[in-house]
């Protein structure tokens, strides 16, 4: 089976808590069991630094605020699986994952909204084949299933992919004003 994990953390490269440990261990176990596994992560500096020069790269984008916001996808190997790193310096070239000094970044909703949309765009263009299952980890990846269904269309190459949301810590929910949904182009029927 082809499985894609979309996660904001991946130990030991980017870890704020237990999510990073699970997001590293579960894909590795699935790969050892014979599955073709891809892990999609934000392009934090600590992760981008691990990518060898000459790695496969291709553009990605998603709608944000009525325009296409472009970034770059880098493809590398990590442990037993493929690592798909989404680079956008405005969103991820920062010292922290979610914030600094116990204060969240003001634009976390926009950052991870872009990440979710760009992750879907990247998965649609992977040369190794489309995932059959997409596993999203906690609120930063929580919009993936919604964006797939709300923005998708009958000919979407990911239309048949199953999705699963893994909640690691219910205390962190990623609550943002409704305006963010409008900026991400989520249609009204999905906002009730």
Query: Kindly state the mean pLDDT as a whole number?
Result: 92
Unreliable segments of 5+ consecutive residues: none
CATH top level label: Alpha Beta
In total, the number of domains comes to: 1
- From the 3D structure, determine the CATH topology: Rossmann fold
Taking Cα atoms only, what radius of gyration do you get, to the nearest Å? Answer: 15 Å
Please give the number of β-strands: 9
Strand order of the largest sheet: 3-4-5-2-1-8-9
What fraction of residues sit in β-strands? 25-35%
CATH superfamily: Glycogen Phosphorylase B
Relative helix content: 25-40%
Distance between the termini: 35 Å
Précis, in short:
With 192 residues, this protein is an alpha/beta fold. 28% of the residues lie in helices and 28% in strands. It has a single domain (2-190), classed as Rossmann fold.
């Amino acid at each position: 089976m082809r499985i894609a994990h979309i996660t904001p953390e991946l130990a030991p490269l980017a870890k704020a808590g237990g999510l990073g440990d699970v997001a590293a261990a579960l894909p590795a176990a699935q790969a050892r069991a014979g599955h073709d596994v891809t892990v999609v992560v934000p392009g934090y500096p600590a992760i981008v630094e691990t990518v060898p020069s000459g790695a496969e790269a291709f553009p990605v984008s998603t709608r944000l605020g009525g325009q296409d916001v472009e970034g770059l996808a880098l493809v590398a190997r990590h442990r037993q699986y493929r690592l798909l790193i989404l680079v956008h310096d405005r969103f991820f070239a920062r010292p922290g994952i979610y914030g600094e000094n116990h204060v969240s970044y003001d634009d976390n909703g926009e950052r991870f909204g872009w990440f979710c949309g760009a992750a879907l765009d990247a998965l649609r263009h992977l040369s190794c084949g489309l995932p059959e299952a997409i596993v999203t980890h906690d609120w930063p990846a929580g919009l993936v299933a919604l964006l797939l269904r709300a923005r998708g269309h009958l000919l979407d190459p990911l239309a048949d992919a199953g999705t699963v949301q893994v909640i690691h810590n219910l205390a962190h929910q990623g609550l943002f004003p409704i305006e963010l949904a409008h900026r991400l182009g989520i249609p009204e029927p999905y906002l009730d």
